[in-house]
Amino acid sequence: MSTRIAFLKGHGTENDFVIVPDPENALDLTPATVAALCDRRAGIGGDGVLHVVRSAAHPEAQAMAGEAEWFMDYRNGDGSVAEMCGNGVRVFVRYLQHAGHVAEGDINVATRAGVKRVQIAKDGDVTVGMGSARLPEGDDVTVSVGERSWPARNVNMGNPHAVAFVDDLAHAGSLYSPPPVAPASAYPDGVNVEFVVDRGHGHVAMRVHERGAGETRSCGTGACAVAVAAARRDGADPAVTGTPATYTVDVPGGRLVITERPDGEIEMTGPAVIVAEGLIEAEWLENAAR
Ligand SMILES: N[C@@H](CCC[C@H](N)C(=O)O)C(=O)O
Questions:
Q1: Residue from 281, 189, 287 nearest 2 by CA
Q2: What family does this chain come from, according to its entry (predicted)?
Q3: Does residue 159 line the site of ligand 1, with CB under 6 A?
């Protein structure tokens, strides 16, 4: 009888993930395996994989093991590695709670963008301290779709984003392929692109084309990048004014609330849901790895 490998399926504002618990880092999750798992027809389906590993067991996280027991080894749906996933880290902690590894309260999670502090509230929402945004000075960029183009803000949330304010989210088009961003030299490792419209005071809506996944229903790091870009556009810089800036960001899959504090820390709150759990056939996984 062949061994089976446990998985779960979860989402945060419909940014969906295949969760693969592998505490001792025993699985060889090749890019081909990840892409097969995320395939919505021949696999389980998801925007990415949350590989759940003890920090001490992963070479990229051992240095963080003293601060955070668990490492989120995040992979995009095409198999590529990403530094950070804001919705993913909330779902990751929801999984840790579901599996009985942690209780309500504050939990540290190691990520490629450093240790993130995550809080599980009684109402079910999960808040993550995302760290601060980096806005490379004089590094603004241009995003295009067909004949239209917009000036965009280069915002780094541990991973790269280009944030464009548009008149209508439909102007982003089908987003079947990555929207061109110029100059390409601003993003040597590729970029996530957000299109944003205003909905009211401190309230915006966005669509996103994610590096390594295509258009998704939500992107947590993207929503944070959007909140920071909107705040700067609106003349709000909490580090200067000493007043936190809060934005509600509507995404196709729900709503996220983002607050930037005067010390630069950005907090994001939203839902995180475990949908299902099951077993992957080892033989299928072995074939997928080839
Ligand atoms: N959906 C994620 C971001 C996932 C990584 C991204 N595609 C990248 O390559 O940087 C989020 O919620 O932040």
A1: 281
A2: Belongs to the diaminopimelate epimerase family.
A3: yes
Mean confidence (pLDDT) of the chain: 96
Instruction: Please tell me the residue having the least CA distance from ligand 1 atom 1.
Output: 219
List C-alpha distances in Å: 111 to 29, 160, 263: 17, 15, 21
Q: Which single residue is written with the structure tokens 């399926």?
A: 9
ipTM: 0.99
Per-residue tokens: 178: 């990555």
Burial 179-201 (b: 16+ CB within 10 A, else e): bebeeeebbeebbbbbbbbeeee
Are 67 and 91 within one domain?
yes
- 85 CA from centroid of ligand 1 (Å): 4
The verdict on residue 169 lying in a domain is yes
Give tens-digit pLDDT for 152-172: 999 999 999 999 999 999 999
In this predicted model, what pLDDT tens digit does every residue of 237-247 receive, in sequence order?
999 999 999 99
Residue 178 DSSP label: P
Measured from the CB, is residue 251 less than 6 Å from ligand 1?
no
The active-site residue out of 89, 113, 196, 219 is: 219
Hey, what amino acid is at 137? E
Is 112 assigned a ligand-binding role in the annotation?
no
Both tokens assigned to 39: 């395939």
Give the whole-angstrom CA distance, residue 222 versus residue 229: 10
Structural domain of 241: 141-264
User: 107 and 173 share a domain?
Assistant: no
Let me know whether 254 and 278 are in one domain. no
Q: Which of 85, 154, 215, 228 to mutate to test the pocket of ligand 1 (most atoms within 8 A of CB)?
A: 85
**Element holding 238 (H helix, E strand):** helix 238-241
